[in-house]
Design brief:
Elements lengths: L6 E5 L12 E5 L2 E5 L11 E6 L4 E7 L8 E5 L2 E5 L9 E5 L5 E6 L8 E5 L2 E5 L2 E2 L2 E2 L2 E5 L5 E6 L8 E5 L2 E5 L2 E2 L2 E2 L2 E5 L6 E6 L8 E5 L2 E5 L2 E2 L2 E9 L6 E11 L3 E5 L2 E5 L2 E2 L2 E2 L3 E6 L1
Antiparallel strand pairs: 1-31, 2-3, 3-4, 4-5, 6-7, 7-8, 8-9, 10-11, 11-14, 12-13, 14-15, 16-17, 17-20, 18-19, 20-21, 22-23, 23-25, 24-25, 25-26, 27-28, 28-31, 29-30
């Protein structure tokens, strides 16, 4: 990790063709694939969109084999995977999204799980958080192929809709929602040893936020405080657990598809005070 650096936040000139929230994003040469999510009408879409970041173009290129929202997504050994999520109820399907826009089902999670996050860590794909509306799943899962999963740790506090980032082989689970309400906890998970500890706390309870690592910094953007979408961007120091204010988004947003491409973080779509958004925010470190 490097010392704190200033961050730049800008509204991208690229816009989605229609408002979309709770989708997931995967990298592709020349841009991003955005898969699934909720439409303005509140329906689950299976559309796979190619967002050309340089050319400021968006095109529909395919469909998920199983339409989902509130899924997790990460890359594993050249495979871009979409895990869990749901349409009418939480599901367990693991889908591979090909660069061409074709989607195939390659496996299943051990139990149905939505509202989760997936991250790549040391050649593994790690699944954290989520569950069902009545049951949070504390099991932290790992897979080397997207087909076989094993439990590598157990969260101290089971959460849905956490912000999650991976740094130096460890996974940071930030905030999230429990049956008793949103929390402030920052949980550190070591998938190699199974150790889980609470290393710090947010200034207030937060869920539905996005986290990414850019310029050596762990940044937490947007989210919900209670039912209200937020504009704050926070910086987490994994060494101390300290969380400090780092910036401000141009508008309140939660539930964005989040990805880092060429050192730039993107919040794609999401939900604002009036529903799903078509806008994209870029975040850089200077």
């Amino acid at each position: 990790m490097v010392g704190p650096r200033s961050i730049g936040i800008a509204l991208s000139k690229v816009r989605l063709s229609s408002p979309l929230s709770r989708a997931v994003a995967s990298p592709i040469r020349g841009g991003v694939l955005v898969s699934g999510g909720l439409t303005r009408a509140g329906t689950t879409t299976g559309a796979i969109l190619h967002v050309d970041l340089a050319g400021a173009r968006v095109a529909s290129v395919g469909r998920l084999a199983a339409p989902v929202h509130d899924a997790g997504a990460a890359s594993l050994g050249g495979l871009d995977l979409v895990l869990g999520g749901g349409r009418f109820a939480p599901g367990s399907v693991v889908q591979r999204v090909h660069p061409s826009g074709i989607s195939t089902v390659i496996g299943r999670l051990p139990t149905p799980r939505a509202d989760l996050v997936a991250v790549s860590v040391d050649g593994m794909l790690v699944v954290v958080g989520g569950g069902t509306p009545t049951r949070t799943d504390r099991a932290v899962l790992a897979t080397a192929d997207g087909v076989r999963f094993r439990t590598v740790a157990t969260l101290r506090v089971g959460v849905r809709y956490p912000a999650v980032a991976a740094v130096a082989g460890k996974v940071y689970v930030i905030g999230g929602s429990t049956p008793a309400g949103d929390i402030t906890d920052v949980q550190e998970v070591d998938p190699r040893t199974g150790a889980v500890r609470i290393i710090g706390h947010l200034g207030h309870a937060l869920s539905h936020a996005s986290a990414f690592v850019i310029g050596g910094q762990v940044l937490i953007a947007g989210g919900r405080r209670g039912a209200l979408a937020q504009t704050a961007v926070w910086r987490l120091d994994p060494m101390t657990g300290a969380v400090t204010r780092a910036g401000r988004l141009p508008y309140p947003v939660s539930d964005s598809a989040t990805i880092v491409v060429d050192g730039v973080g993107y919040l794609i779509g999401g939900e604002g005070p009036r529903g799903p958004l078509a806008t994209i925010i870029s975040v850089t470190a200077r």
